[in-house]
Amino acid sequence: MANDKVSKISKRYEIPIGPIHPALKEPIRVEAEVKGEKVVKVDVKRGFAHRGIEYMGMKRNAIQTLYLSERICGICSISHPYAFVLASEKALGIEPPPRAQYIRTIIAELERIHSHILWLGVVAHEIGFDPILFWTWKLREKVLDVLEAITGNRINYAMYMIGGVRRDIKESHILALRDMIDYYRKAADQMKDIFLSDPIYKARTKDVAKLSQDLALKLNIVGPTARAAGLRVDIRQDIPYDAYADIDVRAVVPQDIMGEVNGDAYDATLVRIYEIEQSLDIIEYCINNMPEGKLLAIPNYVALLTTIRKTQGEGIGAHEAPRGEVIHYVKYDGTRDGPVVWKVIAPSYNNINCWGPLLLGAEVADIPVVIAFIDPCLCCNDRIAFVKDENGRVLDYFEIHNMSVNKTMKIKRMLGV
Amino acid sequence: MTLATIFYAIGFPLLGIILGLLYKGIDRKISARMTSRIGPPIRQPFWDVGKLLIKETVVPENAVAWIFNVMPIVALASSMTLLLYIPFGIIKAPLEGYGDLVVILYLLTLQALAMAIGGFSAGSPFASVGAQREMILMMSYEMPLAIVITGFALIYKSFSLSTIALTPVWTLVGPVGWIGLLLLLAALLIVTPAELAKLPFDIAEAETEIAEGLLSEYSGRNLALFYLSDAVRSFAMVALEVALFFPFTFSQGFGLQFSEPVSYIIEGLWFLAKVLILYILAVTLVRTSFARFRIEQASRLFWTYVNIMALLGLILVALEVM
Questions:
Q1: B199 touches chain A (CB under 8 A)
Q2: Are A398 and A261 members of one domain?
Q3: Which residue from A98, A76, A144, A99 is spatially nearest to A376, judged by alpha carbons?
Q4: What is the ipTM for the molecules in this complex?
Q5: Taking CA atoms, what residue in B is nearest to A36?
């Protein structure tokens, strides 16, 4: 037994990261084979967080599905409804009033600020920089307070509606927003100071998770991760919608700020901090130029559902979520008041593809940084799950259903209920 | 066996545990306040140990059980023994005269070694990677530590800690020697967090990377023993630094004279205060203001910069003394 161990020590170890591991906030499995401190083989296994949420959405009416879409992910609880309402409006041919469009944009940018600050804290925690985790999350409270003041909730805002928004932004809210903008402008400068000039942060993130432009293109990387690799991709710039169409949003890329692109975790930090400032600019523009008018195209929800029941159509809604582009496809067939097809594509699905190539040859100490630097959202991720029997045959819906019914019966018999 | 021996054998380790846990509590509280948290109450480490002691002790299936179970005891024993070599204020060290600084060096190594062996015997990949890291780190910081101790041996022509604590080292050398001593002190302060496995050198126990590494398989009583040994060692290491570099007594510093029993108490408290201040400066402040290094970065830091610094200090001290 002891000899066995010695021979193992000189050879390779398999380090299982996940499904439960301190570096992960949600379940996924990374199987890394290491030799000393080097990762020599890596395999990423997904599928631990599948909840069949799209199927649930196809059984409900459109308004219920909208609220369900908020619950796909706790952090992107604006991004999914945003993409859903954009898709639905295209499918139904509804145009939201201008004021509602501006309010939507403001809320979406507020979400980006809180998500990016959260990411900065998480990445600091992954490299053992816990004081910075506490500091950034304390900063994040301000935007959450503003969101609560406007929408009534810290997360899951229930703000959007097909054809507009449900709540107005009043004068007092605008005062709070201006106050918040000043607060975060100062905070962004401090963050630049702390993250971008700290020698240990540099040492731990420079040249770690180095993503080349070619690889980013090949793997279809999106969002800040792609921008950190120097690709100018941003839905707000490429296919502008709502108030973004009035604002000239430009993708934040490191070559514009530093003059060079490394595509590493340091550049990802850079991009995210500058995006916080960009979001502040967008919010400021929106509150300065907010048009007056209605909030909803169809204020009566019963009338809205009736319209949906009578309309045939399909639409694709794309929104630049804090992590990258989120795309919803919705199809209404004119027979029921909810979507007959609802398909969600979340940014992390593409971004996780880069873990394999980036982890290969990396050090064990870099694994958490590589995992965290794309800001993975795994509950957004799993849209499909296969269940196989012992022979490797994929079981269909009815077989799985029968199996679960039988299991329940068995437990009932066992317990004598 | 005299009464004093029994007192030392039982009283000192007990005192060491209480002080170690107390200082750990203060350290946690200050660290929490620095990061704008309320933090746990100062008695929390005592509760932690109590809780761990009543928990189930699990030995992994493919661990080498006897090594796995013995190593926590070895670690705690070496930390306790370490304490017996440190003069407490003006009270002489209990093991005075039975080998001094070199034994301390070995005892410091033994504790880390026990943790590494325990990690290897756990049969878990996380613990094995942690153990490998601990070994690499040990090889990196032992050299500067040895240089510092050599420097002291050069000045005093002795390895005895009680001799060193009797006369402050700063009074024995001139300006060149002071610069050398300052360099040695700086090297020792950089080694301290590595020796105590605290940030930025808690690489062997990196939580987010290898899930507490060495300790990932330990639970219950075994974990409590490691926890205690960590607390005692932290106290002992800082106390050692105080004894080496800041042995100034209260009566010397303020020109006061006390009667025999009172002076023991006052000097003891003065010593504890000095240890507390250095503990906060060298451990708490450092671990709240740095991120974790990668193992090869830490290794390079010790092998080049800290080594050069310590060697330079040693040369300056040698110039002065010889």
A1: yes
A2: no
A3: A76
A4: 0.77
A5: B129
